[in-house]
Structure formats: C-alpha cells, structure tokens
Design a protein that fits this description.
By secondary structure, this protein is mainly beta. It is built from one helix and 17 strands. The strands form five sheets. Strands 3-4-5-6 form a four-stranded antiparallel sheet, with no helix packed on it.
Length: about 260
C-alpha cells in the first residue's frame, strides 16, 4: 500500500521538531564547553552563575533596632577584623553607630559623643586593629554641624582634638601609607567651604581648598591618599553662584 504523502502542516511540524533538536544540541554543547561557575546562554556572552562560589548572604547588623539605623562606611584592617559606622535616630536627632566584626560576629562598640544635639558618622579608616578612625559631624539637630572624629587605640574610643578653624561636617576618611590620616568635608555658607584635614605625627592640620570660582555649599565627599608620596586627592561638588546645576570639583594636595 502506498504511503500517504504528509500534509503541509505535518511537514511544518517535522521541520519545527528538527530545528528544536538542533537548538537543544547546540545548547548542550555550549553548556559542556562553558567553564565551571558560569551560565552559558546562546546568543549572549557567558555570565557568572547566580549561585557563584564565595557569595555570602546578606546579614543583619548587631545593633538593637530601637529606632531607624543606617551604616554608611566600612573598613577591614584584617581578615578577621572589620569596622562599620553610621548613625541611629534619637529624640535629639542622631547618635553615632559603630559595630565591629571579630571574625565570628558583629558586635556594637561604644562611641563617645557630646551630650545633646545630633552626631553622625559617615566614614571610617583603619591602619590596624589598634588604630582606627571614624569621621562625621556633630551639632544641634536644627543647626549647622561641626567636624567630629573618633579614634580607637585598642583601649577605647576618644574624640580627636581638631583645629579650631575646622568647621563643617566630615564626609570622608582615608589612611595613607606614610601613617597620615586624611579627612575631607564641607562647611556650608563659607567663602572657602570645602576643606581637608591631615593627621601626621599625632597632630591635625587644616588644608583649605584651592581658590576657584565663587560658589556656595561646597563639599568634598571622598578622599584618597596617594601611596608613597604624602599626597592626596579629594572630590566633591559645588554650586556656583547664579547657576542651577551642581559642578564636580577635584582637589589635589601635595606636601
């Protein structure tokens, strides 16, 4: 008995099945050729698998959740030692929040602060487990903030003795390879608002920002020490007078 010729629909179905088989074979070959830890996708570059080795879960901090809290910076002087700083809300505005990782768990660390007003920490830097600094601002909850810097020497935390002319909050901190510690910040409504502090030999020095276009609310938001030079870079923003757009600024400090 002669075989019945396949209909157009049947031929289309067979072609679709053949194409699917070819596509599956190509995917199998690509998966076999992909290195471990990657997910191969046809038509796209290989990308890391979602469950890649070494990824750690998000874990809560150790501080009690009495109010709103926020950690803003972290530094790790060693594999089993890390520091995180920020603030927690209080009836007066804010209290400094400091936590330390000891290799097994995060634990709250007492942070001295002025009575009343609001104190926050925005940056942290560490030379080692017994030489850690944290910077931020302190002042009345409804008024301008002044610089605030803490130092831990292995026995406890103490407020640093900063230059009297250093006004405004500190936003960034960096440890230099020469033992210097750099802090950068801003002072709203000042003629030269942005400033940087440098600690060397246990003494703090204020370094005003370089001269430039007249502006207001200038702030330096990050600072980095240049290894082996005693120099540093600081970056931030300024709002020039009679303009609506913020402008980026870069400051270079050399010994």
């Amino acid at each position: 008995m002669p075989r019945t010729a396949p209909t157009r629909g049947a031929r289309g179905t067979r072609r679709a099945l053949r194409r699917a088989a070819v596509a599956l074979a190509a995917l199998a070959a690509a998966a076999a050729a992909a290195p471990p830890g990657t997910a191969a996708v046809r038509g796209a570059p290989a990308r890391p698998a979602v469950a890649a080795a070494g990824v750690r879960e998000l874990r809560p901090a150790a501080a009690p959740a009495a109010g709103n809290q926020e950690l803003r910076a972290v530094a790790a002087p060693g594999p089993d030692d890390a520091w995180a700083v920020g603030y927690e809300e209080s009836p007066d505005g804010g209290l400094p929040l400091v936590e330390r990782f000891d290799g097994a768990a995060w634990r709250a660390v007492e942070a001295p602060h002025p009575d009343g007003g609001s104190t926050t920490l925005e940056a942290v830097a560490a030379f080692g487990p017994d030489d850690v600094g944290a910077a931020g601002g302190t002042g009345p909850a409804d008024g301008p903030a002044g610089p605030y810097l803490l130092h831990w020497d292995g026995t406890g935390g103490r407020a640093a003795d900063l230059p009297a002319e250093a006004g405004g909050a500190l936003h960034a901190l960096a440890a230099g390879g020469d033992g210097a510690l750099w802090a950068a910040g801003g002072q709203p409504a000042a003629a030269t608002a942005a400033f940087t502090l440098r600690r060397s030999g246990g003494r703090w020095t204020r370094l005003p920002a370089g001269a430039g276009p007249a502006g207001e609310d200038v702030s330096l938001l990050a600072v980095a020490a240049v290894p082996g030079t005693g120099a540093a870079w600081a970056v931030g923003s300024t709002l020039p007078q009679l303009q609506d757009a913020w402008h980026a600024v870069i400051e270079e400090y050399r010994p």
